[in-house]
Design brief:
32% of the residues lie in helices and 26% in strands. By secondary structure, the chain is α/β, with parallel strands linked by helices. Strands 2-1-12-11 form a 4-stranded mixed β-sheet. Strand 20 and strand 21 form a beta hairpin.
């Protein structure tokens, strides 16, 4: 079987369910998902998803029903997601470490009729939070999933161009944005990743990121197209995860700049031996990649590193290819696939193609995001080289990308502005080899304030205000006065970045 020819044929699938069925028909006994000592084949994934779909149907889930789920990276989560795809329901995945503020907003804006949670997970009671928020149709989906007879099911969805996915991104405002995707846009995004990395059915991948992230379907599409398995990590931490990487013979790992740095740090503990003997490629995106990280990985780990560019609105835009030149792999975001059009207007990167989302839940946000010719305005600055590679040089959006996750500066600023010790505040992202960017709060002390604010006190205050842990600033700086312009007295954040990046 020619992997590439099969993958290109399967990428024309109308829906994600259609893609799973076609892959399961070709290689039903081949493994697709691995976790600890458990595994699912493509055939088993299809069969289990159909039974879960029937169980959900018995509970009242129908085509078009909005179902939110906040679940960790587990086999059961993938099964539930495909069950919902079989029904043609509208899925609203929510990152597991989001708390009341983000979860409540997502449930209200999506008008979710059902909400799947993991119960008590990593010491936090998600079921209690769901009840506290007044969520509808709450059910736990960790070890046990709804079950039923597939004979009751209606036909699967026949087309993949209807909106059936609502993903959440913080963007540049304090409230998340609901990003609207179709099955076809997710298949297009995953196809870009799959074809760029030149993988085969002999590879073994890994999912060390939340399955509820846009990277979840992105990566799963790649598995379905090329027919190889991936190891799922419910909680990723090194060095603990290394045993599973080695046991399953993972050949492709990564996630984002933070993951590259973690693997590199472990390799440096024992430089004389390969960290993961089977590993040949690190790949990822979602955060800036300093060129020195690329060179260090290749030099010290002896594997290739390819980095790409994507966002919740467009899961995969460009991707470095393993046979690119070292210069392009170190300094660019790779090239776009066929069908992805990149236009640079006054320095801003704009996009049009099948992988681009349909817009946002808020029509006003949609109107603002697309230009008159239908190109998505990314807010990112960059240029395309003569060889077709994309180079990003900055962002118009005031958003911080930390470990591949968007952090809204305004959300943190709004919360800190209410602290009695804070006169004014600016939150900025600073370059960081491990995280891509770290979150730094720069504070003007309030007149007459007592003791100056400390990092520990600030973190406690933000936690109490409901801010998710992954958004907490790692650094706090105090200044006598924030730099401002002379017209509207706006804070000049670029001056703060220049000062505190030194």
């Amino acid at each position: 079987m020619n992997d590439t020819a099969t993958a290109h044929e399967l990428s024309a699938s109308r829906t994600l369910w259609d893609l799973l069925v076609r892959r399961a028909d070709r290689t039903p006994g081949r493994r697709v998902l691995l976790q600890d000592d458990r595994a699912l084949t493509f055939g088993e994934l299809r069969q289990r998803a159909e039974r879960v779909a029937a169980g959900l149907y018995d509970r009242g889930v129908r085509p078009g029903t909005v179902v939110a789920w906040q679940l960790p990276t587990r086999l059961e989560t993938a099964v539930l997601s495909f069950a919902l795809a079989r029904l043609g329901a509208v899925q609203s995945p929510v990152i597991p470490f989001y708390r009341d503020r983000e979860v409540g907003f997502a449930l209200r804006e999506s008008k979710a009729e059902f909400f799947a949670v993991p119960g008590v997970w990593r010491g936090f009671d998600h079921t209690e939070m769901a009840r506290r928020l007044g969520a509808k149709g709450v059910f736990e989906a960790y070890d046990e999933l709804p079950d039923g007879d597939p004979a009751v099911l209606p036909p699967p969805p026949a087309e993949g161009t209807s909106v059936r996915w609502i993903y959440w991104t913080s963007g540049t405002t304090s409230d998340p944005k609901g990003v609207l995707h179709t099955d076809r846009s997710l298949i297009a995004g995953g196809s870009c990743l799959a074809h760029a990395l030149r993988l085969t059915s002999d590879d073994v991948g890994s999912m060390a990121f939340p399955y509820a992230h846009i990277a979840g379907p992105d990566y799963t599409v790649m598995l379905l197209l090329y027919g190889f398995p991936a190891v799922m990590f419910e909680h990723f931490a090194l060095p603990d995860a290394l045993e599973d990487y080695r046991r399953h013979g993972v050949t492709v790992a990564g996630g984002s700049t933070a993951f590259y740095s973690m693997f590199l740090a472990e390799q440096r503990k024992r430089p004389e031996a390969p960290l993961i003997p089977s590993l040949r490629l690190l790949a990822g995106g979602g955060a800036p990649k300093p060129p020195e990280v690329y060179h260090a990985v290749v030099r010290e780990m002896g594997v290739q590193l390819t980095h790409g560019y994507g966002m919740t609105e467009v899961p995969m835009i460009t991707m470095g290819a393993p046979d690119d030149t070292p210069e392009n792999l170190a300094t660019t975001e790779g090239r776009p696939p066929e069908g992805m059009r990149i236009r640079v207007v006054e320095g801003e990167v704009r996009l049009r193609g099948e992988a681009v989302c349909q817009g946002y839940l808020d029509p006003a946000q949609t109107a603002e995001a697309f230009d008159a010719e239908g190109f998505l305005r990314t807010g990112d600055l960059g240029h395309v080289t003569d060889s077709g590679h994309l180079v990003l040089t900055g962002r118009l959006k005031d958003v911080i990308i930390r470990k591949g996750e968007n952090v809204s500066a305004k959300e943190i600023e709004d919360l800190l502005a209410a602290h009695p010790a804070v006169g004014d505040v600016a939150v900025i992202g600073l370059p960081d080899a491990e995280r891509g960017e770290l979150v730094c709060a720069v504070v003007e002390r309030a007149p007459g304030a007592g003791e100056p604010l400390t990092l520990e006190a600030m973190s406690s205050y933000l936690r109490a205000a409901g801010l998710s842990v992954h958004k907490l600033p790692e650094r706090l700086e105090s200044v006598d006065a924030l730099p401002r312009n002379e017209t509207l007295r706006k804070v000049l954040k670029y001056k703060l970045r220049e000062r505190f990046s030194r």
